[in-house]
Amino acid sequence: MPTSDETDRELVLEQEYVTALYARLDTLRAHAATRLSAARDADRDAMALWQAELARLESVEDGLCFGRLDLRDGRRVYVGRLGLFHDEDDEQLLLDWRAPAAQPFYTATMAAAHGVRRRRRITTRGRVVLALDDELLAPDTADTAEEGALVGEAALMAADRTGRMRDIVTTLQTEQDHIVRDGYAGVLVVQGGPGTGKTAVALHRLAYLLYTRPHLRTRGVLIVGPSEVFLDHIGQVLPGLGEHAVVTGTIALLRPDIRIGRTDPAEIAEVKGGADMADRIAAAVRSRVRVPDEPVEVEFEQQTVRLDPSDCRRALDMATRSGLPHNQARLVFQRRLVELMAQRLTDQLESVVFTDSGDAIDGGSADGRLSPADLRALAAAGVVIDPGREDDRDGPRRLLDEDDVARLRSALLTDGAVCRMLDGLWPPLTARQVVTGLFADPAGQWSTADIPLLDEAAAILGETSAAARVTFGHVVVDEAQELSAMAWRMVMRRCPTRSMTIVGDLAQTSDPAGASSWDRALRPHVRDRWRLAQLTINYRTPAEIMAATGDLFAAHHPGLRPPRSVRAAGESPRRRRTTLAELPHVVADIAGGHTSGRLAIITPPAHLAMLRRSLRLAMTTAITDPVVVLTPVQAKGLEFDSVLIIDPAAILATPLGHNDLYVAMTRATRRLEIVHPGPVPAELSRIQERTPFPG
Ligand SMILES: Nc1ncnc2c1ncn2[C@@H]1O[C@H](COP(=O)(O)OP(=O)(O)OP(=O)(O)O)[C@@H](O)[C@H]1O
């Protein structure tokens, strides 16, 4: 144990070092600000670059340096939110947490010290060093860390919560660090129970990838989350790690051009999310293209042009073979038929030539070309043949040259009657027409489940809206178990390289169209180019609450292992029986007695409005409000100090209600209470019942 004098001396020394780091940071900021103002209005690229650099330097203010490694070879490395170098000699002052040399900060243990003699955690507030926490590591005695060992346990337990997710860069655990730094180029699936840090790990992995693969900054990275509230919850993490260039969105937000006006019943949403919808949409588009049974005729400039079914069939084959989307392939189809029509018209024109006096003479050979004899006859009749074409005196001549035919083709393509005939065979389509044809909504409004269908149709049609075409170099999908097969197709279209990080928990699926197997969800898109990584330790939910979920989990997921909690709450969950009539009073009473931290009341949708009204809460929720009322689906991915679950039997009554109830129970970091009107569901019966309400 160091004496308090030694500790004070160390604190002073570390303060000096940290002060020097901030001085260096200030110099870099001043430099970036100067470059930015020099570039202002003159050089847009330079401006964007220096703006981003300034934002990066600003965002690392809190906790700039949070660790130190003393290595066995005598070197000492400081670890922090970004890399800093000495101005003059390029000496490294601070190592970016993502650099390979910083990895032992997260992975070194007693059993596998990775050359580390001492790991020091440096706690700061503002620019002041508050505390140091040292771990002395023995020389390496094994190749691998003991399973489940916690790194920097004191700091981990001290990590505070504010309602919005914070970065965990100072306390990232070994199993999490391995996922963050995984170099796999395909689809990495991070499966883990509630509170295992899947979201946090995915965000840190994104920061790591942006650091190690700078080209991703230009190709763009996207995070897809389940709700806007969730995106708000995680919105601070990447900026806090110095990364600002990340696009976030829900499936609906990926198509801001489509307005949602209604919600589908679960069974309709399930149908719309099914994989066979892709075939149905493709078939609906194909069915709009037709080959006529009889020849079609169209009048053009007092001439009748005829197209046979076989002409149309060949044009259709040609357009289909082009592999282009419907609306672009339509142009191939049209061009082919117009070529045929122009050729036929030319032949007709050349088979009859009129003299100046209006007399018709036979001016054409059987193949529509002019022989020398024809030319002589035409010249005698006063027809002037383009002299430029007389070079080929020996062969047959055409009356109309290529330019004439090209003009004829253009005239055909813009002729109203011709266009109507062509559109009748291969019409231009919009995604809205196609989807409405499959699922007509009398009010003409779209639901969330329609979005992947509209997006699919847009891809098949080749619609060119910016929102439908944008792609990214890496995509993170959070709460990925909720994505329907059609939503997966939509996400995959935005990631042509299939470089993805997917996080989720199959035991938390609530969407009936969602995933029950990662392989089934991913194989159609990436075959076996995906890998599973697992997280096993729950950093959020206390052991007492996890124990209370035991019966529910075992009943519905006998094949899965629940995560192990690292913390104990010190109090067990409780339940309280009531009646539906009493429910608002009981809830108001519990909410009124809640004094510390944030409380989430998680209820089936049926009671939502009533509870918000009786608690006088706004209908829209800010996640930082002290009391919020949410459905289990809205609570996905969030966490609260206390959770009050209302009417668990009603939650369980929906098709995947057991998963919803599991999600609801695992949102609490401290306290869980359940209010059940009527008998308690069997899965919760072992939770201790509170003494009934007096009166
Ligand atoms: N290494 C860590 N150090 C400190 N806090 C951590 C660590 N890992 C996770 N946490 C915290 O645990 C909580 C749960 O993390 P997160 O939301 O990422 O888990 P999750 O697996 O996505 O949860 P769920 O599936 O239940 O939504 C968060 O508050 C997060 O900051």
UniProtKB/TrEMBL annotation:
GO MF annotation list: 3'-5' DNA helicase activity; ATP binding; DNA binding; hydrolase activity
Biological process according to GO: recombinational repair
Domain (UvrD-like helicase ATP-binding): residue spans on this chain: 171-542
Alphabetically ordered keywords of this record: ATP-binding, Helicase, Hydrolase, Nucleotide-binding
Positions of ATP binding: G192, G193, P194, G195, T196, G197, K198, T199
Gene3D superfamilies linked: P-loop containing nucleotide triphosphate hydrolases
SUPFAM superfamilies from the UniProt entry: P-loop containing nucleoside triphosphate hydrolases
Protein name (database record): Helicase
